[in-house]
Write a structure and sequence with these properties.
This protein is α/β, with parallel strands linked by helices. The chain contains 20 helices and 24 strands. The chain binds zinc ion.
C-alpha cells in the first residue's frame, strides 16, 4: 500500500528526517515558511526569480533526488560552468547525501562523480558553457541553476535535448539579469506568484522597494497605511498568483526577493541599496535591472544600419579584440563595413595586405604574443591598445610617442560611453542590414553601467559585462583608431557643429580633449519607471 511519503515530498522529508548538508533540520516554519510551496511544487514548468542567499539550493537538490526516485525521471542539472558544477557537487550535494541515510540508500554509486544513479533514473550534473555538454545526454527534466549566468545559447541546446521525452519538464532558478532575458523571460510566461503579507489593519500586499520600507526609521511598513510590519508578519504570508496557469503561461513562477526573508532586516536592505545598483536589483530585489541609461538596447545600435555601400576607400581602420576566437571590425570614415571572428591571425594579415594603408588598433591584453607579432609584421601600422580603468589623466585617448610609439592608452569606461553615445546619436554608420549587424548589437546588450562612490565620495561609473561583449571592444578600438586616422568629412565625423556639442572634440594634435565627466556620466537618477509588477 502507498504511504503518504511515497506521494508527498514533504511527508517524505518529515518521515526521513532530512537534514541539510550542514546537518541542520530542513524546516519550513518560522522564517522559512515561504520556501514550503516552492519546495512541494511539482509543476512540470517552474521559474524562480530569486535573490541570492534565499535558501533555495538545498531544497532544489532534495527535490531533484526525490523526483528521480519517486517519479523515475531522468534529470540534467546545469550550472553556468563545469567548475561551478564540480564545486557544487563536491561541496554541497555529496555532503547532503552523506548526511542523510535516506538519500544515501537511494543513490547508487557510479564511476562518474557527476552522474548519480537513483533506481533506474539518472541525475547528470553539467556545466552549460560548451555545445558538447548539451549534446551528451537526454532527459525528462532540465534544471538550470543560475540560468542568467549561463550561456543562453547553450541552454537552448540543452532544451532541444528534451524533445525525446514526453514530459519536457523545465525548472529554472536564477537571480534575474536584464528584462526579458533568462528567468525573467520565463517569469513573463508564468502565473507570477508574489508573497503577500498582512498588516495590523488587515491590508494584504506584497513587499517592494522602496515603498515597503520606512527609510528614516529603517523598518518594514505597510504600503497602504504605513504601519510597521513585524518580522513575524513578514514571514507569515502566503503565495498569491497574479495569473492562472494557461497555455500561454505554463510556468509556475515565484518572485523571491530578500525582502521576504525574515532574517534580513530593513537596515540591511537599505545598506545594500547604497552599493552597486545592478547587484542590488538582481541579487537583493530579485528584479531585472531596468535603469534606462545604464544598458544598451538592440535598437540603440541597429538604428545605425544604413543600406549605402561603403566604397572602402580612404584610410581603413581595423579594431581587434584578441582571445579565442579573435573578433574584429573593419571601417573607414563612411562607417563600419565588415565584422567577423577568426581562430588565428591569417585573415587579419590578409586584410592588412589588401588595404596597404590600413591601420589596426588591437587589444594588448587578450593575447600578449599575437598582438605584438602583428605589430612587428606591419611596422607603424599596428597600435596596441591599453585600457586604463583608473583615471589618472583627463585624456580620453593618449597616443604613445618616442619609446611608446605603437601604443595607445585609453580611458576604458569613458571610451565605451563615448561609443554608446555616438550609436545613440546615429553617428556610427553600420553598412548593411539589421540582420547583418544583429550579433554585434547583441554584444552591446551584454554590458551594463554601474555607479559607485569612490574613496573620495565621488561617483564613478564603469561598464561591466554579464555575457560576451567582444564586438563592443572591437568597435571601441576601431573608434580609437578613427580618432587619429579618420579624417573629417566622412559620415563618422560629419561636421563639427553636430559633433562637438556632446562629445570630446578632435584636437589638432590628434588627441582628444577631456569631456565633462558629469555630462558623460549623467548622475541624475531616471524618473521612477513603471514597476513591471504593478497592475
Ligand atoms: Zn496597512
Amino acid at each position: 500500500m502507498l504511504k503518504l511519503s511515497d506521494i508527498s515530498i514533504t511527508e517524505w522529508v518529515k518521515e526521513n528526517q532530512i537534514v541539510t548538508d550542514a546537518g541542520k533540520t530542513l524546516y519550513f516554519n518560522g522564517d522559512r515558511k515561504f520556501l514550503f510551496k516552492p519546495f512541494s511544487d511539482l509543476s512540470p514548468k517552474q521559474v524562480h526569480l530569486k535573490a541570492a542567499q534565499i535558501g533555495m539550493s538545498t531544497i532544489q537538490i532534495v527535490k531533484a533526488l526525490w523526483v528521480a526516485y519517486r517519479m523515475n525521471l531522468s534529470i540534467i542539472y546545469t550550472f553556468p560552468t563545469k567548475d561551478l558544477m564540480q564545486k557544487y557537487v563536491q561541496g554541497k550535494i555529496d555532503p547532503l547525501i552523506d548526511a542523510n541515510p535516506a538519500l544515501k540508500a537511494l543513490v547508487q554509486s557510479t564511476d562518474n562523480t557527476y552522474q548519480k544513479r537513483i533506481g533506474s533514473a539518472n541525475i547528470i550534473f553539467s556545466g552549460a558553457e560548451k555545445e558538447s555538454q548539451a549534446i551528451a545526454f537526454s532527459a525528462d527534466v532540465l534544471i538550470h541553476d543560475e540560468l542568467d549566468s549561463s550561456k543562453l545559447a547553450i541552454i537552448k541546446q540543452f532544451q532541444s535535448r528534451l524533445q525525446a521525452s514526453k514530459l519536457k519538464w523545465q525548472w529554472l532558478f536564477s537571480h534575474p539579469s536584464l528584462p526579458e532575458i533568462g528567468v525573467h523571460e520565463a517569469w513573463q510566461k508564468s502565473n507570477q506568484q508574489h508573497w503577500f503579507v498582512t498588516c495590523d489593519n488587515a491590508h494584504e500586499e506584497y513587499l517592494s522597494w522602496p515603498d515597503s520600507i520606512n527609510l528614516e526609521e529603517r523598518y518594514f511598513i505597510c504600503k497602504k497605511c504605513n504601519v510597521q510590519l513585524t518580522d513575524q508578519q513578514r514571514v507569515s504570508g502566503r503565495w498569491v498568483a497574479k495569473y492562472k496557469i494557461s497555455e500561454q503561461r505554463p510556468f509556475s513562477g515565484y518572485w523571491e526577493p530578500l525582502l521576504i526573508a525574515g532574517w534580513v532586516t530593513a537596515k540591511e536592505i537599505i545598506d545594500y541599496s547604497k552599493g552597486d545598483q545592478y547587484t542590488f536589483y538582481t541579487r537583493v530585489l530579485g528584479l531585472p535591472y531596468t535603469q534606462g541609461g545604464d544598458k544598451v538596447n538592440l535598437k540603440d545600435v541597429l538604428k545605425n544600419c544604413i543600406p549605402d555601400v561603403n566604397d572602402q576607400e580612404g584610410r581603413i581602420v581595423i579594431g581587434v579584440d584578441t582571445g579565442l576566437p579573435i573578433w574584429y571590425v573593419v571601417g573607414n570614415k563612411q562607417g563600419i563595413f565588415y565584422k567577423d571572428s577568426c581562430k588565428d591571425y591569417e585573415p587579419l594579415k590578409a586584410l592588412m595586405r589588401r588595404y596597404p594603408t590600413a591601420i589596426m588598433v588591437i587589444d594588448q591584453g587578450g593575447d600578449l604574443i599575437g598582438s605584438r607579432q602583428m605589430r612587428e609584421l606591419f611596422p607603424g601600422r599596428v597600435f596596441l591598445c591599453h585600457y586604463l580603468k583608473d583615471r589618472k589623466t583627463l585624456q580620453l585617448i593618449t597616443w604613445g610617442v618616442n619609446d611608446e610609439t605603437g601604443n595607445v592608452r585609453v580611458d576604458r569606461n569613458r571610451m565605451i560611453q563615448l561609443v554608446i553615445d555616438e550609436f545613440r546619436d546615429k553617428r556610427i554608420p553600420l553598412n548593411g542590414t539589421e540582420d547583418d549587424w544583429y550579433d554585434v548589437a547583441l554584444h552591446f546588450t551584454h554590458i551594463y553601467r554601474t555607479t559607485e562612490e569612490n574613496a573620495l565620495g565621488v561617483p564613478e561609473s564603469k561598464w561591466e559585462r554579464f555575457d560576451d561583449d567582444h564586438f563592443v571592444h572591437a568597435i571601441v578600438y576601431w573608434r580609437v583608431g578613427m580618432s587619429r586616422f579618420g579624417q573629417q568629412g566622412g559620415r563618422v565625423f560629419m561636421n563639427n557643429t553636430t559633433y562637438m556639442k556632446e562629445s570630446p572634440e578632435i584636437m589638432p594634435d590628434q588627441e582628444m580633449a577631456a569631456p565633462d565627466p558629469k555630462r558623460i556620466f549623467d548622475m541624475s537618477l531616471p524618473e521612477k519607471e513603471d514597476d513591471w509588477r504593478d497592475e
